[in-house]
Amino acid sequence: MTKFKIPSNLAVSETGFLFAPTTGETFTLNEIASKIFHKLQNKEPLETISEYLLDEYEVDKSILERDLSDFIGMLKQNHLIEES
User: Fold this and answer.
1) Residue from 57, 51, 6 nearest 27 by CA
2) Looking at residue 83, what is its pLDDT?
3) What was the pLDDT predicted at 34?
4) In Å, what is the CA distance from 81 to each residue of 7, 37, 72, 76?
5) Is the Cβ–Cβ distance between 43 and 3 less than 8 Å?
6) Alpha helices in the chain (DSSP H)
7) Which of left, alpha, beta for 7 (phi over 0: left; psi -120 to 50: alpha)?
8) Domain boundaries, position 36
9) Contact at 8 Å (CB) between 28 and 16?
10) Per-10-residue mean pLDDT for the chain, 84 residues long?
């Protein structure tokens, strides 16, 4: 199961506002991205998050997996998560 670690210096609000103090960058997550990020914070495996999203939203599995992969890639690229 794929799990991720959130850097300890990352400030995260309940509304999806992220602040990286080391770079000064800020990010805003939409509602779904915020849910995904909070699940990552709770150390939920990617597979569990994918299952949750499939149950919660009417979306094709292949589209969900592609979009989730893109989102995880963006988080990694911006150093907002690391694989654990």
Assistant:
1) 6
2) 83
3) 92
4) 6, 9, 8, 5
5) yes
6) 31-41, 46-56, 61-77
7) beta
8) 4-83
9) yes
10) 85 88 91 92 93 95 96 92 84
What distance lies between CA 26 and its chain's CA centroid? 15
DSSP 3-state helix, strand, coil percentages of the chain (rounded to 5)?
45, 15, 35
Q: How many domains does the chain have?
A: 1
pLDDT tens across 40-58, in order?
Answer: 989 999 999 999 999 999 9
* CATH number of the domain enclosing 79: 1.10.10
- pLDDT at position 19 is 92
